[in-house]
UniProtKB/TrEMBL annotation:
Annotated family: Belongs to the acyl-CoA dehydrogenase family.
Gene name for this UniProt entry: gcdH_2
Protein name: glutaryl-CoA dehydrogenase (ETF)
Pathway where it operates: Amino-acid metabolism; lysine degradation; Amino-acid metabolism; tryptophan metabolism
Sequence segments annotated as region (Disordered): 1-23
Amino acid sequence: MAKPGTQETTGTPGRPPAAPDPRDLLDVGWLLDDEERAVRDTVRRFVRERVLPEVGTWFDRGAFPRELAKDLGAIGLLGMHLSGYGCAGTGAVPYGLACLELEAGDSGLRSFVSVQGSLAMFPIHAYGSAEQKETWLPRMAAGEVIGCFGLTEPDSGSDPGSMRTTARRDGPDWVLNGTKMWITNGGIADLAVVWARTEEGVRGFLVPAGTPGFGTRDVAGKLSLRASVTSELVLQDVRLPADAVLPGVVGLKGPLSCLNEARFGILFGAAGAARACYEAALDYTLARVQFGRPVAGFQLVQRKLTEMAVSVNRAALLAVHLGRLKDAGRLVPAQVSAGKLDNVRQALRVAREARGLLGANGITLEYPVIRHMANLESVATYEGTEEIHTLVLGQAITGIPAFR
């Protein structure tokens, strides 16, 4: 990470506060060490200064500024949880906190960083050859090369094992055919990590933009994640050299391990979106005067703010706990599913309650709430729907798979 400035937020060690901080009711920040607070504060400051003044415009235009990639790379956020090749090599909790602060800005921003680091860089780092790592990872860490992850297909979302995209050998080369859908960063990516069915099983392939037969089409008409590029990938007789395949993995283990990394970032990110909505509602109701007093002074409003504060802190505590498990090498996929399932659910509830507390103002981009609320509808379904994570947990609890 770039060298942080002075600490400027809650949750520093020392004597207990005289009263709880309404923005960190359970003093979750006290659980963090100095490195974790430094990461949190650096990213929070970046979001406040670089993102929040413009993100409403990006959302309104349906655009993600490509130049932001180098800014994110400059402060060490791209692939920050990976080691070597220009990556920061931080622990899981600092990475999660960065995702939390990024999504407090916008889900599209956190999605960009998650896809770049956990879905595009991670498989190269974990399963790539030495040459592939040296060729791609340093430039991806710097934001000079943008990556995307091609797994989901038009008819294969929650069931990636039914993918139709194929790769066949033709002499020393591979030839890929198929279509991928709902691909974050697809239209701006310089490199796609595409998963395809081969004779020996599912394999990952590195497909540079501009390869003959490879094209993208951006999804139009989105009402969610508008400050993010979502695309279709089309592969028509795409010919790749033998060294384009990731040599270190065969089977669905490869893409599923990447998804587990991304879901970890999401469970932190959802807590950030929830916090942003709660803080917007708190500020608004304290300033808004009706019947001669601040709206926050009414009992019904205080109950709603209380429920929101509890949900926000519950999500943050769960995220930090799962991060500690991951740093200790104890985190298992079912626990990630629990975090993704509940934190997104809590964030959606907070966003909808906040929207109501802002009244008519809650539907405008002058305030962040409607943007977060719309974004969270996508967060609820990507990287595993609520139903899929419920079945993952059901199998973990009972030992009986119920997917088929």
